[in-house]
């Protein structure tokens, strides 16, 4: 099943014409070709992932020194994975796209008041270079392999300086949203 976002905008254009009608009878028949999956974020060789309900998860990276953020040390990173369950056998593809408030293209901005400055959060596939951070709010998406559909997509979240030499210590909190499309 492929989700098409443009549909909602087109429906909004049709409703004003209907509002002038005095009677409206609607017969709607739909065939569900495949159900989607339930996607969860799970701990995977990293800090505990907490499910706060309503599909909101938290992962806390322990306190880390600015020098570790600057050098891209493993202590400024945390591993987790996206896991799909309950998928229909008819689904052949799962795509994921990342959204969030960015500060430097691929890094998501700190939302903590009076917190760390010049620091952003990037998300990438585990074991890849920082140059592969996903670009939030972009048309870029990644496709899950067959193995990832069965066992999960291993990812890494990393704290990095947004500009060399600009990092300042303090509390860091950011929000990333994973959007899924199925075919």
UniProtKB/TrEMBL annotation:
Signal sequence, renumbered to the chain: 1-21
Domain spans labelled Fimbrial-type adhesion: 28-182
Organism field: Escherichia albertii
The protein's name: Fimbrial protein
Highest taxon in the source lineage: Bacteria
GO cellular component: pilus
UniProtKB keywords: Signal
GO annotation, biological process: cell adhesion involved in single-species biofilm formation
């Amino acid at each position: 099943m492929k989700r098409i976002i443009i549909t909602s905008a087109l429906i909004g254009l049709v409703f004003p014409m209907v509002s002038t009608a005095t009677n409206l009878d609607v017969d709607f028949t739909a065939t569900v070709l495949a159900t989607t999956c339930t996607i969860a974020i799970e701990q995977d060789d990293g800090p505990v992932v907490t499910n706060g309900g309503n599909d909101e998860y938290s992962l806390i990276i322990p306190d880390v020194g600015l020098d570790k953020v600057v050098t891209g040390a493993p202590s400024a990173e945390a591993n987790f994975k996206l896991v799909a369950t309950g998928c229909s056998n008819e689904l052949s593809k799962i795509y994921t796209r990342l959204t969030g408030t960015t500060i430097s293209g691929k890094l998501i901005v700190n939302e903590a008041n009076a917190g760390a400055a010049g620091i952003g959060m990037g998300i990438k596939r585990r074991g890849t270079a920082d140059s592969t951070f996903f670009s939030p709010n972009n048309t870029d998406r990644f496709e899950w392999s067959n193995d990832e559909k069965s066992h999960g997509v291993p990812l890494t979240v990393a704290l990095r300086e947004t500009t060399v030499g600009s990092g300042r210590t303090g509390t860091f909190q950011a929000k990333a949203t994973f959007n899924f499309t199925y075919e």
